[in-house]
Amino acid sequence: MRKTKNRFTMKKIKLLVLFIFMLTPVITIGQIHTRGLFGVYHRDAAVKKVIGKYNFSVTYKFTYAIDTVTKHKYFDMHNLEVGDTFSRYYSTNADKVDSILLKEREYTKTHPHASKYDERGEYINRFDHSGWMQPSELERQEMFYQNYQQKGVVTCRILICRVDYEYTEPLGDFHWKIADSSSSIKVLGYGCQVATGNFRGRNYKVYFTEEIPVTCGPWKFNGLPGLILRVEESSGLFKWEAVGISQKPGDIYIHDPKAFPSKKSLLVVKKVSRKQVMSMQKLEWEDPMGLMKMHDPSTNYYRVDLKTNSILNEKETALGRAKYYIPRLELE
Asked: What predicted TM-score, i.e. pTM, was given to this entire model?
């Protein structure tokens, strides 16, 4: 009886591990950042360094599709901090996740015998009791600094498999065409003009206000004579909309493990090219397991069909990858 019971337990453990770590062709790596592996892909909040001040901030709701077939939408709350010379754009949800996990890490340091996992093998988050994320809410671990350290450039930080990849490039040219004033609308009470443009394979319609005369906006958007408050991508896969503006000033941060040599950080920052980041993002749908193994060769992953609980072979996963993939903002 004991031998049979142990076999059953091992089977349950194996299935649990598979359910946590596996992806179907429909489920993307972006989804498991919090839904399946909460706490694995995050930035170390202990190494946040102040690099400037912002005068005001804008909160955007960023809605995006997670695959190009069903076009099922998730959303994330983002923040744009605008200073005198540069700006920072990032996910407020991701920032909160970072803070929660830092508290958890500090707790385990002072309570070395505290368990990290519950009886079901799930990661314990002692400091996250608010239920602040909705089922369709998912943070994106990306940051963008416009005109930081050098005018006319954008510094991009993209977190992939525990590595913060950084690249710098010139501010993009969106080839804006501003419509006549008759097409103006109100966003958050501000009079906005309409402009259309294109950038790296996608077409955009934006609403900007000259009542706030700064030339930036969410993500990499820039180059208009006013703050961009709403963006609509032509295929309907992406949308940004300002939902609040705060006049309260504050500090602008960047994560820098080298700035705090006394603190042992799990965060690794690597400077690469945009082309290298795009290659890794492409692997997110072509070969997500290969991407994970590239960052951790000692780990073995499998693909599982969550409907049948069966491990998929390479032919089946290849068919899935051909049908479903993660929409990327930049196609070129």
From this structure: 0.79
